[in-house]
C-alpha cells in the first residue's frame, strides 16, 4: 500500500505576493547558513534563512515589477535576478551588501526565464529571449559581450521562446541550448555556431517549462495540456519523442529534475506538486498543500543527501518546503 503523502516540513510566509521563482544556496563552509532566494510579483527578492525560517534580507531592484527568475553565480553572494521591468540585475550580497552592480536591459516583454551556464572560473554564458519575437540572445557574463543571436529560419512561425536550458556534456565540449517555443516545439541550438541542430514538436500548446538530463541525454517538458512529453537526444544530436505521460489535470508551470537524476517534480496549475521517478516516470507522490497555482519548484543543493529539500512557490503567497528524501 502506498504511503500517504507527507505534510510540508515547514512553510515560509511573508512575501506579500505570488511567488514566481525560487533558488536554493545550501553548499559552503560549515558556518554557511543555507538560504532560499524567492522572487515575487511585487518586485521583491527575499533571502530566506532556512535555519530560522525567516527573511534575512529583502532586495528591491526591479521597480516593483514582478521578479520571475533568480539564480546564484558560484555562491550566495552573487545573485542574478530577472523582472518584468525588462531588466536582468547582477547583485553583490557579500558582507551584508544589497547592491545591484550591473544590469542587462532585455527589451523583451515576455516571461521567459533566462538560463545560466558556468563555462570557466568567473565566466558564464546567459541565454535570454531577445527583443525580436522568435529570437534568443546569448551573452557572456560578467563582460556582457554578445556571443550570438539564435534566429529561426524565415517563416518558421515558432512564436516566442518560452523556456531555455543551457548545458554542455563536459567542460571541454561545446555549449548547447534547448529552447521551448510558443508553438510547442523544442529546438537544440549549437551556441558556438549559432545554428539549430534539431527541432521536435513536443506539445500542441506553448511550452511552459523544460528540464534536461545530459547524462542520460533525455529531457522532459510541460505545457498547458494534460501531458508531459519525454524526449531524448541521439548521438547524431537529433531530438526524438520517447513517450508522453498523461496528467489528471491540465497545466504545468515548472519542471525540475533532482540533481542526482532519480526523481523529478512538477508544479501544477491544479495547486499540486507531483513527484515522479525519472527512470520510468513512475508517479511517487502528490503533494497537496497550496490553495492556488504552484508557479515554481526547486531542489536544494545540500551536500548531505539526508538534508536535501524540495521547495515550491505558489500564487497563494506561500513557499512550502518538503523533505522527501527518506522515501526515495
TrEMBL record:
<keyword id="KW-0677">Repeat</keyword>
<dbReference type="InterPro" id="IPR015943">
    <property type="entry name" value="WD40/YVTN_repeat-like_dom_sf"/>
</dbReference>
<feature type="repeat" description="WD">
    <location>
        <begin position="200"/>
        <end position="241"/>
    </location>
</feature>
<dbReference type="InterPro" id="IPR036322">
    <property type="entry name" value="WD40_repeat_dom_sf"/>
</dbReference>
<protein>
    <submittedName>
        <fullName>GNB1L protein</fullName>
    </submittedName>
</protein>
<feature type="repeat" description="WD">
    <location>
        <begin position="287"/>
        <end position="328"/>
    </location>
</feature>
<keyword id="KW-0853">WD repeat</keyword>
<dbReference type="InterPro" id="IPR001680">
    <property type="entry name" value="WD40_rpt"/>
</dbReference>
<dbReference type="Pfam" id="PF00400">
    <property type="entry name" value="WD40"/>
</dbReference>
Amino acid at each position: 500500500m502506498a504511503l500517504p503523502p507527507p505534510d510540508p516540513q515547514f512553510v515560509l510566509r511573508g512575501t506579500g505576493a505570488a511567488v514566481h521563482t525560487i533558488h536554493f544556496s545550501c553548499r559552503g563552509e560549515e558556518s554557511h547558513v543555507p538560504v532560499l532566494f524567492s522572487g515575487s510579483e511585487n518586485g521583491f527578492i527575499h533571502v530566506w534563512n532556512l535555519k530560522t525560517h525567516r527573511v534575512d534580507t529583502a532586495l528591491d531592484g526591479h521597480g516593483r515589477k514582478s521578479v520571475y527568475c533568480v539564480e546564484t553565480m558560484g555562491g550566495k553572494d552573487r545573485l542574478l535576478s530577472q523582472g518584468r521591468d525588462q531588466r536582468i540585475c547582477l547583485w553583490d550580497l557579500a558582507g551584508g551588501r544589497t547592491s545591484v552592480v550591473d544590469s542587462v536591459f532585455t527589451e523583451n516583454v515576455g516571461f521567459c526565464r533566462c538560463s545560466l551556464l558556468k563555462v570557466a572560473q568567473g565566466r558564464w554564458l546567459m541565454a535570454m529571449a531577445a527583443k525580436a519575437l522568435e529570437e534568443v540572445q546569448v551573452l557572456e557574463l560578467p563582460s556582457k559581450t554578445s556571443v550570438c543571436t539564435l534566429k529561426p529560419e524565415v517563416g518558421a512561425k515558432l512564436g516566442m521562446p518560452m523556456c531555455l536550458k543551457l548545458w554542455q556534456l563536459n567542460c571541454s565540449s561545446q555549449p548547447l541550448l534547448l529552447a521551448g517555443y510558443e508553438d510547442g516545439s523544442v529546438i537544440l541550438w549549437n551556441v558556438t555556431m549559432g545554428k539549430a541542430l534539431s527541432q521536435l514538436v513536443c506539445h500542441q500548446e506553448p511550452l511552459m517549462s523544460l528540464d534536461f538530463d545530459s547524462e542520460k541525454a533525455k529531457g522532459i517538458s510541460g505545457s498547458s495540456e494534460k501531458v508531459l512529453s519525454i524526449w531524448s537526444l541521439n548521438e547524431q544530436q537529433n531530438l526524438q519523442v520517447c513517450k508522453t505521460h498523461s496528467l489528471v489535470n491540465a497545466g504545468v508551470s515548472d519542471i525540475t529534475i533532482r540533481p542526482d537524476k532519480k526523481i523529478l517534480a512538477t508544479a501544477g496549475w491544479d495547486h499540486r506538486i507531483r513527484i515522479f521517478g525519472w527512470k520510468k516516470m513512475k508517479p511517487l507522490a502528490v503533494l497537496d498543500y497550496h490553495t492556488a497555482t504552484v508557479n515554481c519548484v526547486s531542489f536544494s543543493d545540500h551536500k548531505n543527501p539526508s538534508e536535501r529539500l524540495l521547495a515550491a512557490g505558489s500564487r497563494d503567497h506561500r513557499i512550502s518546503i518538503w523533505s522527501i528524501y527518506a522515501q526515495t
